[in-house]
Structure to design on (824 residues):
């Protein structure tokens, strides 16, 4: 009995030492930290103040978020100084896959050195979360020139638009207490192992195939009679975003499509069809600047053989925007803003 | 369920727990030595359940095969007639041919006669290529009188369909497996601990190395004209590494899991990419299949005893059959044929040079031969991987045409090279220390009763999980 007890104790101790070693490894290889509820409501959640972040799973990055938990060049907290350009978006804008100085927001800041650009990009957010959070974000950051919304789709689900406009779009859940939270907080390896377990379980139950080109994406189709309602809800949804803009501030939405290559190596962006046209039309009616990156991404591929998405440690053209993708977006936004400033 | 499925772990743990319980009850409570019989029956029932999980239909086919092999083995033992052996082999090969090659035949004939065709809805039973070869080997051994026909149905069934190896082998040999069954003594802590380590080393090869490499090679082989020449070459070499880590990983997992059950299987891979010649390569790659083809096909055909031309013919035929065994498709046939040509060409050059190539002691020449062999084998894998012959040619064209395109210096390829390089160097040092005549690969196993080993093992398992790729990536050889 004593022998067995000693063996069990040894096993537990070995497990603890291994967890410590694995945590050190995670700190270097993949440490995503913890998110906390954003009390001001400008985003569903934010990262802990000056949260360290490492990522070698998609791209290679090691950096700290700012004191407010967002990816901005300065580590300091937001001081209240006027923001000229406020950027809201998803994990693409959070940009944890590329070095801090290469994301769209930072590049825009370097192109417009006189303007203060602030990035509120947070992963798991969609344009619906961003529009829902926009009033709070505008109230806190008081943008003076531009609010930029990022989206990777312009063919929307009607209920999502309606919920967002009505302020009842489901928020990204944040767990800030409990045993699992405490364990994950103190032992980084636990989070990585748990994530691996969930992924492994999911893939073991899944019998789908690798993401690969199976013809151009199906155009967004809804019944003919539903288009009237779609347009109405879209107008209401974008109108809500437009309505909260301060007088001097322009709303700009940019769309960056995901891309796939066919067997011949030809580039294909999703066909947004009627929904895309409607989106452009409503933006125009509401005086929202709309920027479509489809052609720019295609040019990037055709001229330079570079895809705007994907990294050298992942699938080709699959995943988040890479540094080149961010650069193209920043350049196009810069040109768009410059042209507007000149015509004013 | 495959060995890399998360559900296999609780399944395996459950089987081990039941076997352990039976062993404890057998030795401590009933004080009888009959528990191994119960354990073997449990393993067999688990194997049937494992196959039935995929489809009860597959289990029916498997049971039919086992009954046939059992009865035919007994008949062959009594009447050792060549005709009976030929009939037995024809039935088994016919079974394999029906499930694996019917649609290929229809497709090929329709293409030859330019007719429309309808594919038959034939599902390939899991592991059929492997258990049919095991069965044929058994019948031949019985006919030759090298082994007695197995009277114990459980023993024969376990040899054919033990759940740890039914999916993709290794192809077990009668003389290796049945004696272990007859003298089976149940689980041992040493076997479980060593098997566990082998299993996780295999899992590392599979989910960390092979599966990450598959992301890149799948992309490049899907649209070869989109990539630059440098990336094409990287993809070709990455596939060579992917298929090695995939199947060697699977083999380690299968051998490790079998070892946990108290049964030993020989290694299926032995650092194949250090080979200096095609024959050495096949002695190190998928050893159980190569040995099977050598003993049951190449040598009966005359081997290298009937003159040079016959040797070339036999080599070519064996490689062609090996290609066809791997898959019903022109790409596999071409792959086998090209390997046959390569083997013949090497043998001819070696003979003309007075065996200077195969017997050289010159270090530089040996390294050069290893490099050339790896290069050729990697190029031939292109046909193995490609979805069609035009696809294979497009990949080769991309390699040799200096085309421009996407540049993807995929980091996992370099990591895989690093791991393989370190493993090879460690094996070199170990082989030199042990004064082995040829380089031998090995699976690192520690004494898990020591705390330092436990820490290493837990950390290794954790790193495997954290680095693992959990996309949809089946075992390559699972399709055969």
């Amino acid at each position: 009995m004593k022998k067995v007890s000693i063996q069990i104790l040894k096993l537990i101790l070995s497990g603890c030492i291994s967890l410590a070693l694995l945590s050190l490894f995670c700190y270097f290889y993949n440490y995503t930290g913890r998110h906390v509820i954003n009390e001001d409501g400008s985003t569903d959640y934010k990262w802990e103040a000056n949260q360290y972040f490492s990522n070698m799973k998609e791209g290679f990055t090691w950096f700290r978020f700012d004191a407010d938990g967002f990816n901005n060049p300065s580590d300091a907290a937001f001081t209240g100084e006027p923001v000229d350009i406020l950027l809201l978006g998803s994990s693409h804008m959070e940009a944890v896959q590329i070095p801090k100085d290469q994301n769209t927001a930072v590049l825009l800041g370097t192109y417009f050195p006189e303007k203060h650009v602030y990035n509120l990009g947070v992963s798991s957010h969609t344009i619906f979360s961003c529009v829902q959070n926009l009033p709070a974000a505008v109230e806190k950051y008081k943008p003076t020139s531009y609010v930029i919304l990022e989206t990777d789709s312009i063919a929307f689900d009607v209920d999502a638009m309606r919920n967002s406009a009505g302020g009842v779009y489901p928020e990204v859940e944040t767990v800030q207490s409990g045993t699992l939270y405490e364990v994950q907080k103190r032992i980084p390896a636990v989070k990585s192992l748990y994530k691996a377990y969930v992924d492994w379980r999911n893939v073991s139950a899944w019998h789908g195939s690798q993401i690969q080109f199976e013809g151009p994406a199906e155009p967004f189709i809804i019944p003919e009679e539903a288009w009237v309602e779609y347009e109405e809800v879209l107008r209401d949804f974008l109108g809500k975003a437009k309505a909260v803009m301060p007088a001097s501030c322009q709303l700009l939405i940019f769309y960056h499509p995901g891309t796939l290559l066919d067997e011949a190596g030809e580039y294909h962006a999703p066909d947004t069809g009627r929904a895309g046209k409607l989106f452009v039309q409503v933006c125009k009616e509401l005086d929202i600047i709309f920027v479509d990156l489809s052609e720019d991404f295609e040019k990037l591929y055709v001229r330079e053989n570079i895809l705007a998405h994907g990294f050298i440690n992942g699938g080709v053209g699959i995943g988040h925007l890479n540094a080149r993708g961010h650069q193209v977006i920043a350049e196009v936004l810069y040109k768009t803003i410059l042209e507007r400033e000149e015509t004013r | 369920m495959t060995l890399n499925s998360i559900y296999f772990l609780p399944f395996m743990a459950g089987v081990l727990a039941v076997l352990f319980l039976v062993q404890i009850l057998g030795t401590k409570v009933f004080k009888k030595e009959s528990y191994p019989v119960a354990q073997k029956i449990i393993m067999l029932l688990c194997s049937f359940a494992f196959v039935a999980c995929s489809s009860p239909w597959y289990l029916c086919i498997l049971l039919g095969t086992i009954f046939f092999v059992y009865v035919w083995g007994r008949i062959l033992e009594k009447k050792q007639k060549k005709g009976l052996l030929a009939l037995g082999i024809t039935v088994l090969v016919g079974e394999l041919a029906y499930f694996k090659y019917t649609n290929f035949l229809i497709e090929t004939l329709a293409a030859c006669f330019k007719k429309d065709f309808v594919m038959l809805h034939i599902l390939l039973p899991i592991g059929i290529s492997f258990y049919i070869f095991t069965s044929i080997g058994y019948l031949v051994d019985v006919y030759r009188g090298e082994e007695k026909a197995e009277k114990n149905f459980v023993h024969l069934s376990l040899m054919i369909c033990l759940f740890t190896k039914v999916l993709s082998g290794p192809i077990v040999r009668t003389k290796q497996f049945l004696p272990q069954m007859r003298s089976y003594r149940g689980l041992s802590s040493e076997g479980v601990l060593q098997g566990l380590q082998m299993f996780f080393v295999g899992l590392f090869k599979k989910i960390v190395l092979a599966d990450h490499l598959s992301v890149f090679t799948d992309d490049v082989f899907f649209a070869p004209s989109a990539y630059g020449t440098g990336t094409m070459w990287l993809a070709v070499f990455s596939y060579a590494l992917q298929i090695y880590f995939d199947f060697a990983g699977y083999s380690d997992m299968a051998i490790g899991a079998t070892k946990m059950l108290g049964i030993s299987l020989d290694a299926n891979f032995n650092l194949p990419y250090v080979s200096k010649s095609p024959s050495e390569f096949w002695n190190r790659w998928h050893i159980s299949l190569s040995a099977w083809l050598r003993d049951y096909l190449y040598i009966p055909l005359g081997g290298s005893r009937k003159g040079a031309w016959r040797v070339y013919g036999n080599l070519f035929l064996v490689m062609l059959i090996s290609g066809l065994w791997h898959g019903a498709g022109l790409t596999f046939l071409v792959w086998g044929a090209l390997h046959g040509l390569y083997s013949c060409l090497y043998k001819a050059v070696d003979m003309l040079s007075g065996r200077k190539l195969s017997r050289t002691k010159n270090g530089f020449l040996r390294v050069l031969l290893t490099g050339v062999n790896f290069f050729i084998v990697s190029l031939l894998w292109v046909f193995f991987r490609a979805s069609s012959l035009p696809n294979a040619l497009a990949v080769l064209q991309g390699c040799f045409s200096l085309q421009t395109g996407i540049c993807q210096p995929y980091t996992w390829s370099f990591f895989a090279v690093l791991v393989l390089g370190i493993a090879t160097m460690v094996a070199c040092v170990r082989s030199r220390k042990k004064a082995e005549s040829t380089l031998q690969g090995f699976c690192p196993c520690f004494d898990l009763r020591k705390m330092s080993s436990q820490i290493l093992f837990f950390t290794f398992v954790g790193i495997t999980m954290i680095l693992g790729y959990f996309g949809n990536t089946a075992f390559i050889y699972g399709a055969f």
About this structure: Confidence is low (pLDDT under 50) at residues 207-211 of chain A.
